[in-house]
Design brief:
Pfam families: DUF169
Organism: Methanobacterium lacus (strain AL-21)
Helix content: 25-40%
Largest sheet: 7 strands, mixed
Shape: globular
Number of domains: 1
Strand content: 5-15%
Structural class: alpha+beta
Protein name: DUF169 domain-containing protein
Order of helices and strands: HEEHEHHHHEEHHEHEH
Distance between the termini: 41 Å
Radius of gyration: 17 Å
Length: about 230
């Protein structure tokens, strides 16, 4: 599979330097057919993993892929990522309501209806730290401090100006908000996390998550290199 190894390395190195990021941005790629997964990217073992955990593991250097069978720790995440249909108890709001996250099934259903979702046509999803990803990422995810996220937002607006819109609902933050959302729209998104990402992926209280496609990242790095740095 064709990809630009040098570009992945360069973008990762520069974004770390420009926003003082210590952990690696994560490259994520969705595959309609897992036979297209690059050689050397192995399947993660076990079946109770969560997408948010996989993203966190990739920040530490892991390179791997998973199918719906390996991501059964969070079926809502699997549904949002297009690896299977959204399970009925989640789709109807019954599960989130029963967990006490919403006052009614209607409120839970309204929120689940609104989250970004990829059409259920995907066979597998691959993860890697951006600098060593053996593929062109569909989405790049950055777990950031608020100051780092502020620098990202200013870089995104450097050329065209305007406003950014953060789209989130307090559930399915990394799978939906920063993976499915940017994948579907091509636009970056910011999210405050969710119970699952905080508990299972260990996203810290002082961290938020940013998702963007590869083009967003290339433009961001160029803008941050041109923009006058602030003394913060």
């Amino acid at each position: 599979m064709n990809y630009n190894k040098t570009q992945n390395e360069t973008l990762s190195s520069k974004i770390k330097e420009l926003i003082d990021l210590e952990i690696s941005p994560v490259a994520v790629k969705l595959f309609i057919d897992k036979s297209e997964i690059p050689e050397g990217v192995t399947m993660v073992e076990g079946g109770e993993h969560r997408h948010c955990e996989m993203v966190q593991n990739a920040t530490k250097g892991d390179i791997f892929y998973a199918t719906a069978s390996e991501l059964q720790g969070c079926k809502g995440g699997v549904g949002a990522l297009g690896l299977m249909d959204m399970p009925e108890p989640i789709k109807t709001g019954a599960m989130h309501h029963s967990m006490g996250k919403f006052s009614s099934r209607a409120a839970a259903k309204k929120t689940v209806d609104a989250i970004p979702k990829i059409e259920p046509t995907m066979d597998a999803i691959a993860y890697a730290p951006l600098e060593s990803a053996p593929f062109d990422p569909d989405v790049v995810i950055i777990i950031a401090k608020p100051l780092q996220a502020m620098k990202i937002s200013q870089g995104l607006l450097y050329n065209l100006g305007g406003r950014l819109e953060a789209n989130f609902g307090g559930i399915q933050s990394i799978c939906s908000d920063t993976t499915a959302g940017p994948y579907n729209t091509g636009k970056p998104n910011f999210t405050l996390g969710c119970y699952g990402s905080r508990k299972f992926a260990k996203v810290q209280a002082d961290e938020i998550i940013v998702g963007m496609n590869g083009e967003n990242l290339s433009e961001l790095v160029s803008a941050l290199e041109e923009r006058e740095p602030e003394d913060i």
